[in-house]
Amino acid sequence: MSMDRLIENIVKTQNPSVVGLDPKLEYVPEFIKEKKFKKYDRTLKAAAKAILEFNKCIIDEIHDICPAIKPQAAYYEMYGYEGVKTLYKTIQYAKEKGMFVMTDGKRNDIGATMEAYAAAHLGLTDVGGEKIEAFGADALTVNGYLGSDGINPLLEQCKLYDKGIFVLVKTSNKSSGELQDLKIGDKTVYATMGDMCEKWGTEVMGKYGYSGVGAVVGATYPEQLAEMRAALPHTFFLVPGYGAQGGGAEGVSKGFDKNGLGAIVNSSRGVMCAYKKEECDEHDFAKAARREVIRMKEDIISYLPRIAFPE
Ligand SMILES: O=c1ccn([C@@H]2O[C@H](COP(=O)(O)O)[C@@H](O)[C@H]2O)c(=O)[nH]1
Fold this sequence. Notes:
It contains 14 helices and twelve strands. By secondary structure, it is α/β, with parallel strands linked by helices. The strands form three sheets. An eight-stranded parallel β-barrel has the order 1-2-3-6-7-10-11-12, surrounded by seven helices. The site of ligand LLZGTKA7 has 19 residues, from strand 12 and helix 12. Its EC number is 4.1.1.23.
């Protein structure tokens, strides 16, 4: 199961964090942008090429100490087809380096359309009988609020191609409670969605006790992280909101199990823009990213037991 591969990467690196590659052009150092503008003018192609170089340099610096990346599709789509090509190349490059790739697309639809999303991001696309990998991520974030019709097509691809999904349960943003905290009977909407993840996951159980259906639970809600950890023993958490959104290491520790597993914490701006925060030479941006990955890892694991496979 794909979540098994993620867990193996986490144990190997002793690092339960993922670097979000959400590369706004303003995060890319001037020297890279200037080079690409000179060659391609100020075009979408120049932007996409600059972002690809930025991403590859960061991946080169972190792949030995960080188990995964999470490219957010929006930051590639905004550069049109050139940006989407960069998303594909980023995914392939990180996978070649042994990293687990979770595309943050928050896709949602029903039936045939969800099958198309599933083929695009996780499975294979049929081209006249020839099956071809389109994007080839290991996992995809999805919105499960359309119910099983939106999730079943993904589960099929997860089973066939050993992939995973992370379903939005309790998101990190300030207004997430407007809907997700409402009660259905005596249960919140997010807890109900959590239960659905646990149920969907029974079809795709992995060997370390976690299924291929994970949940997104924000770092900004430690109490809900603790509640969900206790309620969803087979559901692995993707925890965004550390750092730039105010989430901290002690809070995120509530999402982990007794083996220091069960969750992976995301930081995007914190890592990509570490060189700006450090005020170091922009040529050192990738080394600054590496320093931030190490700092974040040490911060988080200081609240966890030693990360180990379950006995
Ligand atoms: O609840 C959610 C779900 C997804 N995200 C995404 O995570 C990153 C966070 O970026 P930072 O720069 O580390 O704040 C971004 O891609 C969001 O779209 C989230 O923040 N919260």
